[in-house]
Specification:
The complex is a heterotetramer, with 2 copies of chain A (144 residues) and 2 copies of chain B (382 residues). Chain A is of the alpha+beta class and 144 residues long. Chain A contains 5 helices and 3 strands. A 3-stranded antiparallel sheet of chain A has the order 1-2-3. In chain B, strand 5, helix 7 and strand 6 form a beta-alpha-beta unit. The chains are: A alpha+beta (144), B alpha/beta (382). The complex binds pyridoxal-5'-phosphate (2 copies).
Chain lengths: 144, 382, 382, 144
């Protein structure tokens, strides 16, 4: 069933913040899979334990794009520890709410960010986030 | 803003003459057709006149037309009606993987109630193979249901050929003609079917009314149980304005002439946007249907962008339906999941103009480009 | 000729404001509410606004209202929906002998599919005894269905009392409120029911649309299988104009005020025509319903004579229904066959005037006299 | 389902011919029963083996009254033998046709007349019509 989006969602969908790839990211998170139709990649740059930049690329519906955009906005400039408190609900709320069937997009956005932090931690400390397991296996390329 | 409606397979606007025909039957001629008094007799005549118009459009006799609340009820009525009336003979039903949910979900219901269902595959164009139908029929088979044309990819199935095989086996044959009625010529005798579903709102009639053609002699139990309306075949006070509207839509129906515009749109998209492809059969397809896969982008985000430019289209993508599965039809013709998620359906109508097509051909490429630039799948293809 | 419509229980004219409300949704705002684009979103809002109006009228929450094609579908949906979803718990259903055919015939269908049905008798007024309901419930019982008010004799059943008993037993309770919705105050919580059927055309809404109230948490399988409309509870493209019309009718609904006119008609007939009697309960009855037995004459010939004088009424006689059986309701309250054949039902509406009643009171006695003079039954009584 | 009647049916229903009882009839036929809602009584007067008069009383629907009326018209003035050739179809045709669900009324009318002849024959010859058996037991009074 079609579900109208809030103005905030439409704004972030039509004018996504922080979209694009990042040169030499400190961490990369890739979540989602083509079966459910949403794939998110998030890139972060970290300096002094703070997320100084975040970017994303997303294949997905309006909510997937908007939540990616909002998630990057919410973590940018925050110390890692604080940024990790980001929940999918916070993303959805910041967007003025999401239709029930679209809440999974906000979960993906949260996970994409956490996957990026996890990647950063493994690279820098050799140990990832405790208890980190995204719903879907991160994806790289797949054959077309 | 310009508003361009290219979602005529989802529903069509009622034709002004259809609405005009319905008008008197709300408050003025409002009697219950089952009533013996003058108020009832005048609506009874209106219902019977509408029945004649439906019968004329599909080449049946009037007694073979039963009014319903739409395509879904017609499909459910046909399947459950035959299943429950003939289960003594067998409990096996043959259908295809690309039927409308009205058929598929009804089959799943029947499966839970002890019936066995064979879902036939289709080829890359969405065609059912008549020989596979033949092979699927066992001595337990009581019904075969194959749609006349698919609502997503527009493929028109070889119904007459399949019907011949099915009837040789002495099995009932139903076709869902919701997408073809009023657009293609239909003759139930030439098609050779026992049951045929149609729905008014798909061809400029009102929503909430349809019909089931039931060949004389076919053994069916009722779907709606109650009063003796429709000669005992479908209970409930007749939706008189709706039925009159369906009749009017049948009388107005014209074979679709939009194929050239559709072809222009198709060629425009395929030539202007790289990595796109046509879904469905190149020639055996509904004249108003175009379904294309646009790689690396997801359908809903395409739709939303089009909508913001006043263009209404549709997609087989998960996100519009509230389910996470992409179109079962696109998967059945072999599309990978991400392409199934990135398909667009444009369905033209009587009102579609060449300017509409030009407008879409201007609007779509930049949208695709923008979404691809955000897509993590696209980089791999650069 | 004067035209007097006293068959409002069969159907009512749609209120002009209802028709006005529907008007934009045929050709102008015609999108499919399931579509994500603007055309779909505007009709989606209209459907949801209508749902709110229905919910407000019956005191439910919006999610508990599912739109259907009318009273018959609502009844069938409730019965089959509960039966097929809960057969693991038991296969016994309790109902009454005076339910509408939409309930009775559906029970007969379920009986053929392995369910056991108890048809409770009623007293001389048509009342169901709550204590008999209690006794009829076994550990196999999954559903009780008792109508709110009877469509023929107008008797209003003690639903709240019955519901209390049924719910104590942990059994689903359905009531067919097709004759009461929009005429009497309805509150599903006060009634205490799990399921309630209503139909728009019985209270100045359009034909072909109704609703089923489904209490939150009630376990039901769908009746129409297909797309995900109505949150997966009822497939098929929404009948948007019809649903908008139902919503408008709910918003306009007023508690019926015609009881005084009905009483005048009743007293007039009973006092002017010998050997007549009231059917149904003297006080626990629909305000608009009068059902009288007129001895020695047959119903259809009364109706035809009334019709020739412009008066539309109804009868429980066999002849109007194409079956040879007289009204099951009149037989259930103990009328002998020939009296059941000679009953007349007058059901008043918002438009009924005192002059209409006077006109009927003038017209009816000579008709009865003429028919009695032809009747071979009458001589015995002289 | 309501079925509109032909003009002829409506004419015979609203202005039935030969309605009423007969003083000293030569034969009386009573058919139908209250369960199906149609009761017909037919009375005949016979002279020189000819039906010189016929009358009826009917409790029943429009078709029942019209077929009674038409049946009496059709037999009046005919020799018994010829009148006995009256079929229900002939009655229905003379009325310009009947709705399918109402054909049983024409059967009743035929039977009412034959029952009257049967009664006459038994009274006069001691032997009724060969093969005469109406669908329903003839009725007299029943308690109200
Ligand atoms: C092929 C097909 N069958 C059945 C249906 C169901 O028709 P309706 O929505 O009128 O119930 C549709 C459209 O929704 C359809 O396209
Ligand atoms: C009590 C009752 N239930 C159910 C129905 C069926 O409603 P509908 O004709 O809208 O299907 C009616 C009227 O016909 C009714 O009076």
């Amino acid at each position: 069933m079609a579900q109208p989006y809030s103005d905030k969602v439409m704004d972030h969908f039509m004018h996504p913040r922080n979209v694009g790839e990042m040169e030499n990211p400190d961490g990369v998170g890739k979540v989602g899979n083509p079966i459910c139709g949403d794939i998110m990649e998030m890139y972060i740059k970290v300096k002094d334990n703070t997320i100084v930049d975040a970017k994303f690329k997303t294949f997905g519906c309006g909510a997937a794009i908007a939540t990616s955009s909002m998630a990057t906005e919410l973590v940018k400039g925050k110390p890692i520890e604080e940024a990790l408190k980001l929940t999918n609900k916070a993303v959805a709320e910041a967007l003025g709410g999401l239709p029930a069937v679209k809440m999974h997009c906000s979960v993906l956005a949260e996970e994409a960010f956490k996957a990026a932090v996890n990647d950063y931690l493994i690279k820098t400390t050799g140990k990832g986030l405790p208890d980190f397991k995204p719903h879907d296996e991160p994806l790289t390329e797949h054959g077309h | 803003m310009k508003k361009i409606y290219l979602d005529n397979a989802a529903t069509t606007p009622a034709h002004p003459d259809v609405v005009l025909a319905m008008q008197p039957y709300f408050s003025d001629k409002f009697g219950n057709p089952s009533s013996i008094h003058a108020f009832g007799q005048e609506t009874r005549s209106a219902v019977e006149a509408a029945r004649e118009k439906v019968a004329r459009l599909i080449g049946s006799s009037v007694e073979e037309v039963v009014f319903t609340s739409g395509g879904t009820e017609s499909d459910n009525f046909a399947l459950e009606g035959v299943a429950f009336a003939n289960e003594g003979k067998g409990k096996h039903i043959v259908t295809s993987k690309i039927e409308h949910h009205a058929v598929l979900e009804c089959c799943e219901f029947l499966k839970k109630r002890g019936f066995e269902i064979t879902y036939l595959p289709v080829d890359q164009y969405g065609l059912v193979d008549p020989q596979q139908v033949k092979k699927a029929i066992t001595d337990q088979t009581i019904l075969v249901s194959i749609m006349h044309a698919n609502n997503e990819i527009g493929t028109v199935e070889p119904i007459a050929e399949i019907a011949k095989i099915v009837k040789e086996k002495g099995v009932y044959f139903h076709t869902d003609a919701v997408q073809t009625t009023g657009h293609l010529p239909i003759d139930v005798k030439e098609l050779g079917v026992d049951l045929l579903s149609l729905s008014a709102h798909k061809f400029y009639g009102p929503k909430g009314v349809g019909a089931l053609y039931i060949k004389k002699g076919a053994k069916l139990v009722s779907f709606l149980h109650g009063g003796g309306q429709e000669r005992g075949r479908r209970a409930s006070t007749e939706n008189v304005p709706g039925i009159v509207g369906l009749g009017a839509a049948c009388a107005l129906a014209q074979v679709s002439k939009v194929a050239p515009l559709r072809d222009k749109l198709m060629q425009g998209i395929l030539s202007r946007i790289p990595e796109t492809r046509l879904n469905g059969h190149p020639t055996l397809r509904l004249p108003n249907n175009l379904n294309v896969s646009i790689k690396y982008v997801e359908g809903e985000s395409l739709l939303l962008n089009l909508d913001l430019q006043g263009i209404a289209a549709s997609t087989g993508s998960a996100c519009t339906s509230g389910s996470l599965d992409p179109s079962h039809v696109l998967l059945a013709i072999g599309l990978p999941h991400e392409e199934a998620h990135g398909s667009l359906r444009f369905t033209l109508g009587q009102a579609t103009t060449e300017e509409d097509i030009d407008y879409v051909l201007e609007a779509l490429p930049p949208i695709v480009q923008k979404l691809r630039s955000m897509s993590p799948l696209y980089k791999g293809a650069k």
